[in-house]
Amino acid sequence: MSIALPAIFLLVQLLVLTLAPPGVSQSGAYLVMVLAPLGAALAALWRAGHEGGSARRGWLSVALSLALWTVGAAINLWHDLILKQSGQMYSDAMLAFNLATVPLAFMLASEWRLVGPALVRWTDAVMALVLGLAYFLVNWLSLNARGAPDEAGLATMVWLYDAQNLYLALGALARWRAATSSDERSLFGAFAAYAALYTGLAALNNHIFAVDASLGPEYATVITLAFALLAWMTVSRCPANLGAPARPAFIHAVHSASPILLAGALLMVSLVLIRLDYVHGALGVLIAVVGHGLRSTLAQVGHIERGNSLQREHTELQTIARTDAVTGIPNRHCLHPTLDTMWRMHRRSGAPLSVLMIDIDHFKQFNDRHGHPAGDACLRDVAMALQSALVRPGDMLVRYGGEEFIALLQDADAAACSVVAERLRLAVQALAIPHVDNRHGVVTVSLGAASALPQTLPSTLPGLGGMALAGAAALVQAADRALYQAKQAGRNCVAA
Prior knowledge:
By secondary structure, this protein is of the alpha+beta class.
C-alpha cells in the first residue's frame, strides 16, 4: 500500500492531464498541486502519530511545512481559477510558500534530542520564522523593485528560490549523513531525498516550463513527483541506510554548525533586505545577532552545568570506589594515595608517622559458625568501635581487606602509637560480641604498631630479613611484621 497509493495518484494525474480536454486538464493541474502536498502532509502526520520524542517533533515539522505549501497552492488555485487573475504573482501565496520553509529550517537547526533549556528551541523557532518572513520580503520586493514585476525581477526571484531549496537540501543531506539513530536516519533520509528531488524539479519548472508561454500549468505538476516520493518513504518507513558510519568529527561539526547556519542565513538575508527595506532588514539583523548570542549563552550555560554534573558524578564514583561497601569506611584503594601524601608531609615537617595493622582474632571461625551476614555485622561493629576510638581528626581508619584494618596516625611517635593501639583493642573487646571459638569468649583484635621519622628512615629496615623497602611501604611492612608477632604472642594484644 505504501507504494501503491502514490503510484495510483501519479497514474490518475497523468491520465487526467494528457487525456482530458484543455480546460479540464488545466483545472486538474491546479487541483493536483493542492492534493499532492496535502497527501504527503497526511502521510507525515500519520508517521508522527506512530513515533515518539524527537522523531514525532520532526515528522510534525514536515507535516506542517507541507500543509503550508498546500495553502500556497490553494491560494494560487483561488486566484487563477475562481478569481480569474491568471498570469500574476500573489503575495499571499508567495508568503505561504516561504513560511513552508520555517518548520524545515527549525528542524535542521535544532538538537535532535530534546535536551537543554526549552528557551534554546524557542530561540531557534523565532529565528526560523523571521528567516521565512525576511526571505519573503526579499523575494517580493526584488520582484517589484521597479514597479510591476518584470523579467529581471522574475529572474531574481527564481534564483532566490533555487538558493532556498538548495540550502534546505544540503542541510538535510548533512543531517542525514550525521544521523546516529535509526529514527533520526529515517526522518532526515526521507527529507533529504525529497528535498534533492524537489530542488531539481522546482528548478526545471522555474527555469524552463514557467518561462515558456506555450506550456500550460500541466507541466508545473512535475513537482508532484517529489511529494509522491516523500509520501512513499514516509509510509514505508524507509530506513535510508547510511552505509559506513560518518566520522565522529563530521557528526560533531554538523551538530555544532546547524544552529550557526540558521543565524548566519538570517543575517545574510537581512543584510540583503536592508537595501530594499531598511527597517525590516535592520530588525532581522538585530534578531539574528541577539538570537545567536542568546543561544550561544544558553548553550555555554548548559555545557557548564553538564560539566559540573559530570564532575559531581565523578567525585561520587570516586567516593564509592574508595569506600568499603560493608563497613562504610575507606577501603584499600584509598590507603596508598593517603599514606603517600602523609609520608611526604611528615618528611617535610620532620614529625613522626605511625601505622597500626589490626586483625580480628579467629574471624574465619566466627564466619563459619554464624554465617556471612553475622560476619558482616561484626565487621561493621568493629569498624565503628575502632573509628570511635580514633579521637583525633587527622587520624584515619581503612579496611585493608578481609578482617584486617589499618589505622594511620599523624604526628604520633612510638609511645603515642602504643597508647592509641591499646585504646583500640579495649574498644573492640568492650563490644562483648560473643565468639565461642576465641579463648576470651568475645570478639577481640590483635594489633601491630610501627612508627618512623620519614626523613631519617633507612632504605633497609631491621627485622624485615634485609628486604630493601623504603618509604611508606616499609612502614606498612613493619606494622604487618609486628601484627604477626602479636598473633604469635597469643592474640588480643599489641606488638610494636
